[in-house]
Amino acid sequence: MTLTRLSLTDFRNHAGADMAAGPGLVALHGNNGAGKTNILEAISLLAPGRGLRRAPLSDMVRDGASGGFAIFAEVLAGADLPPVALGTGIEPAHPGRRIVRINGASAAAASLGEWIAILWLTPAMDRLFVESAGNRRRFLDRLVLALDPRHAQHSNRYEAALRARGKLLADPGQADPQWLASLEAQLAEHGAAMDAARLSTLAALAAELADQPDAPFARPLLTLVDGEGREREGPHDVEALKTLFAARRRIDAAAGRATAGPHRDDLSAVHAATGRAAARCSTGEQKAMLLSLVLAHSDCVARARGARPVLLLDEVAAHLDPSRRAALYERLAGQGGQAWLTGTEAALFADMPGPVTRFRIAGGRIAAG
Q1: Given this model, what pLDDT does residue 102 score?
Q2: What is the pLDDT of residues 64-81, one digit of tens each?
Q3: All domains in the chain, ordered by first residue
Q4: What is the separation, in whole angstroms, between the first and last Cα of the chain?
Q5: CA distances from 191 to 145, 157, 200, 258 (A)
Q6: pLDDT tens digits, residue range 220-268?
Q7: Alpha helices in 263-369 (DSSP H)
Q8: How far is the C-alpha of 334 from the C-alpha of 331, rounded, in Å?
Q9: For the chain, is the Cβ count within 10 Å smaller at the N or the C terminus?
């Protein structure tokens, strides 16, 4: 998958930008605060979800702009497919509502995943394995979404049913048993589909990672665990989930939240070479495992969808020693597809194997080179 053109209007610090890129590596260099990560964030919004910063839409509007922003891209989703035009943004009259267009026609944000798969790695993710389970679930669900675009619909409907059930349980006088049963049936249906997709993705990743050496990037072993940290014994079954939610109505009402179910599961990772839990590994080892995971996932998507995802690697090169940096570039260039990388110095990208598209970013201005 390749972004051949990217245009930004009033997005973050970019009043207007138009970039053309080819397949292979895309290197963005410039000082801190120049707007490199903003470009990656704009690309990330061409996929379902809230983007790599998960920021409110209103925060993305350039200071001094009228209140809206626009992102447009032309994408080649596969060698035998015609280009597709993807656009997203907000209008000044509706600052909280995201607009999505595919080939000029209005569309749901979830449908973006049918046309492009995007995965990113940012410095903020370096502590993924020691932060909240919610962050790891979101990370896993992005991996799933790139392999199964339907995952967004199941996730959205599950979350909607979860909120509706929570409101009913919070008001015992309105908690009609038949209504609750209907919502729990929806939770069970979409929760089981979410779980099946997660387990399928983890199985595909395990197969790819099994063929990778432990160096130069650390290899993780991944499992799905429940909310108590216990390894899951099997997939969530629709009927079993119905029974679970019905049995926990009183507990969930007292807790003010649903205390069990797929939304409570967590991604567990272990360093394959040492057997040490990822949370107890060094920061460098954790970053190496994340990088290994992203590269393996790219292989999974290429195998499943016939085209590699667009990779967004923010400040990754600066945190690798020269040998690992060279190995990363060789891997990215050799596997095909498109990867966008940022760094403060052009020298970080001097030895990239071609083809390479290079941009210099300074004060919201973008120039080739």
Answers
A1: 96
A2: 888 899 999 999 877 677
A3: 1-117+307-369 (3.40.50.300), 125-305 (1.20.1050.90)
A4: 23
A5: 15, 9, 14, 13
A6: 999 999 988 898 888 999 999 999 999 999 999 999 999 999 999 999 9
A7: 283-305, 322-335
A8: 5
A9: C
